[in-house]
Amino acid sequence: MKRILGLLLALLVLGVFPMPAPAAEEAPVVLGLLEIRGLDSLANAGFELSKAFGSPTPKEAISLLLHNALGTMPGAGIPPESTVRAIAFDSDSARGGWAVLLPVADDGSAYLGSLAQNGWKNEAEAADEVLHFVAPAGGPLPLKDVFFLKRETLLVAAGSAKDVRRADAARLDLPPILPAEGDVVLQVRPAALAETYGPQIAEKMGAGFRNPQMPAEAAAMGALYAQAYLAAARQIKECVLGLGVANGNLNLHVRVAPVADTAFARWVATVQPPAAAANVVALPDALAVEILNLGDLQELLPAYFRFSEKMMALLPAGGDPTAFQEYMEYEKASYAQLAGDFGFALLPPTPEFPLRFAEYAALKDAAAVRGLLPDMVRGANEMMAVMMAETNAATAMPFAIDLSLGEPREYREIAIDRLTYAFRIDGPMAALWPASIPTKFAIELAWVPGGLLAAVGDTALTETLVDRALAGGTAPLTANPAWQALYPEPEPRLVDTAHVALFDALRAYLAYADAATGGNRAQQVPDVSGNLAMCSYVFDGLMTRIRFSLADIAAASAKIMALKAQARAEAFPQPVQIEEAAPNAAETPADDASVESPETGASPAPEADGTAPPEEAPAQE
To answer: β-pairing, 414-425 with 440-446?
Structure first.
């Protein structure tokens, strides 16, 4: 009876005062997130991409590799089209905090059972149902211990019991899906990284500058760089990159979202579609074109100039910070006149002009900027002279820049200034400088209504741009057939568009180099344009799409394989094959049964008595 009473009393006490369970972990700071939008979809994308690269890998083989990385096999408990997630978070672990969120068809029993079949051992189960699995030696995973928590149709996996509980708390605050398209999507949170690991990041960034062989100012420069990068990172909430294959293209989808109430957020809010005038540089023969709107740069420029002034104070001439102040004031005044719209184009080189490009910048007051030009040129030359005078052998620059203004001219009543950049190259750099590349470049500045046109090349390029600007109504870059082929249904209100004929550009510049050196490198480029197109729009941040055709990747791969085959053939020529002379019909009877047939291997027929036939005497010569 006493034993029964004691047992009842113990049960009563345990019922009133339950045994303590492990304390719930607080949700950690999530630093990054990776999404695989279906292992089957990723395997199919990998197959399409491998075909384009000339080494097709079957979808089934890629799927096997993906499942093998998770310790299992296809069909063993992970739905093929469900999203697999991996998260990184702050942790005191040496290998950092990480977790994988595995979708499962049931409560995870089938997946965990497949681990057991593959040699994993279930070591223990904690009071809060944390499962501890030990991977077999020599397995595909670099980890030995993996801890699991079952959550209905989800398994939370991490490298420690503490981290699996923390990951379980963090998953409740994750977005339902990352804001980018693709088969695999990566999110990085710069603000969280800077806040969590700011001192460690600054230490690593500055370590390279703390070198006894570097100038005394280098350490302070490194600290300033780290400070600037961390300040910028604290204004970026997330960077998301989606990578996928669809509609015959390799697609990248990027999102950069600002932290609320920051200078970056205020600047993003001012970005808008550029005016039609910026399309003036979208010339038909351009190798690369970009048209964009820079927004209100006054939201960002104060921070940029603060950084520049601090950096200039640390240069070898930094003993007198006022040495560069005058130039900085002119630069501030000119930047203040930018109206936002901007365009750039790279044009094919010619024998006379290896560098040809065009720029357009919308200005609030073009006359005011032109009036600043002589002072800016003088200030830039004075600043360069001071820097060169203060440098020593350890910090000397390999070249100097001289700016000069030439005689202005007019075309169709448009004022055009001529600005020359001249590089003075001394020492070893002068001996290495290719003779085919000039050291002097002339830039013509045409002050058209509402903006500035800058052209490097012949005067005909400047006049063509002026004609287009005065005519107005130039076709937008989005009307380019190559751009439209990659974006048949573009987003509305694009704030940035770009197109690069990648292979055309490589071929053009290699042909220029070939003309100077007698080579044939241009012939090694695929004979397709290699169109890469980009567009950006504002949607809770800046969203950017980049597309490149799989057919162009395949053309490049085929060209590379053909060149490799040609190189092998030239390095290891095949020996000349000598054909054997045909036998003389008179010496070889057509139907002699005593001759062994190479097809049947028949032996000479035996004599009637079963003995072997006598050997024939050799013919006498």
So the answer is: antiparallel
